[in-house]
Amino acid sequence: MTATTGINLLEDTWAREIPHDQFARLRREDPVHWHEIPGHQGFFAVTRHEDIIAASRSPELWSVETGSFFIRDQTPEALESLALTLVGMDPPRHTRMRQLVSTAFAPRMIRKLTRDIERRAALLADSVAAKGGRVEFVEEIAARLPLQIICEMVGVQAADEDRIFAWSNRMVGFQDPDFRTSEEDGQNAAVEIYAYCDALAADRLKEPRDDIISALVHAEVDGERMTTHEIDMFFVTLCVAGNETTRNLLAGTLLSLIHHPAARAELVAGIDDDALWTTATEEFLRWNGSIHNFRRTATRDTDIRGVPVKAGQKAVLYYTSANRDEEVFNAPDVFDIRRTPNEHLTFGGGGPHYCLGAGLARAQIKSLTRELLRRHPHVELTGEPRRMRSDFINGIKYLPVQFS
Ligand code: HEM
């Protein structure tokens, strides 16, 4: 391991910008870099595409359950709760839990949902015109579509969408003062959303419907019904994973089209060219990955690229860096809407935890961006965008724009 100085991948860095320059140096000089965190055990920052794929596909060596998916070490109670989430548990339990919901996300279901997504995307794009084209894109537009879709799939009625939105902001934005007003607030939000979920679950136990919450309350894992807490954690994972990530990706996509007017003009000219919109969507995903990293913990002594790692030490997999890896992408710093192949790791490095909602997210990003540009080929900033302060979520919390 070489000593690479001037590297800081903790939250303040990301509030300003994505540290692509630091990642380029790390990939070149120190791809398995030891990084300290004040007050916590340090970690290995893994920045090459190939190494991230290898770790993601070896869950028996790289556990998520042992130390959670967060960079910072958790209290034993928090760790216990996180191990009940789909994304926080290891096989073989993970395999059985994932089967419970996988049919709701199967390609056949996504194709069915796509018509609904297109209809809602068109309505949202129309609503921009009704506001004279001037909108705060994050809250008024980008947040709406994923929220509507996931609420419908899970079983939340439309009138409660805004409550889900506020709870998930308070839980995810824990490093950003705009979202979380006090230390306890994130925990309070969790308690409130659990209570909401419990009421919903009790209702579906009596009267099942065609939604995910009904499937969960009636399902058996290893011959047993899921506990209330397990259902709560599942519900929260779906609400948060289905909302924040897609919203941020939609906002990032619009910003990248403001920064690349030639690409935008090309997309407007080819508005009905589905092949173009398919490659463009993959580039939006590569360019604006909404989760920077997930952590894994070594279950035994091993090495990554020859760097020794002891059992219990953590590796943080930087998808954001993998998406610019020059060994995989030609001209990685060029935004190329016709790029193919495009093996980005925005949905993870493969393996058991590969994003369950990838098809759903792709359909939403493509439909909404296309319907917006179809009606409003020009778009510009009317103020400074504001980024979320987080070393985990690639968030844009404020994006004022004028469409015309
Ligand atoms: C652009 C939007 C999205 C991005 C960037 C994204 C990204 C990711 C990533 C990086 C992972 C972890 C992969 C790993 O650990 O190997 C993941 C897992 C997951 N995602 Fe997404 N996601 C998005 C949208 C969605 C949507 C719309 C849903 C729908 C509810 C969803 C549900 C999930 C779930 C449930 C998991 C855990 C899967 C498991 O552990 O088996 N995601 N996502």
Molecular structure report:
Helices cover 50% and strands 13% of the residues. The chain is of the alpha+beta class and 404 residues long. The protein has one domain (11-390): Cytochrome P450 (Cytochrome p450, Orthogonal Bundle), CATH 1.10.630.10. The strands form 5 sheets. The protein has a 5-stranded mixed sheet with strand order 1-2-10-7-3. Strands 4-14-11 form a 3-stranded antiparallel sheet. A two-stranded antiparallel ribbon has the order 5-6. β8 (302-304) and β9 form a beta hairpin. Bound molecules: protoporphyrin IX containing FE.
Q: How are the SSEs ordered, and which strands pair?
A:
Blueprint: H1 11-16, H2 20-29, E1 32-37, E2 40-46, H3 49-56, E3 62-63, H4 76-82, H5 93-102, H6 107-130, E4 134-136, H7 137-142, H8 144-154, H9 161-172, H10 183-206, H11 212-218, E5 220-221, E6 224-225, H12 228-259, H13 261-269, H14 274-287, E7 293-298, E8 302-304, E9 307-309, E10 314-318, H15 319-322, H16 358-375, E11 379-381, E12 386-387, E13 396-398, E14 400-403
Parallel strand pairs: 2-10
Antiparallel strand pairs: 1-2, 3-7, 4-14, 5-6, 7-10, 8-9, 11-14, 12-13
The structure holds protoporphyrin IX containing FE.
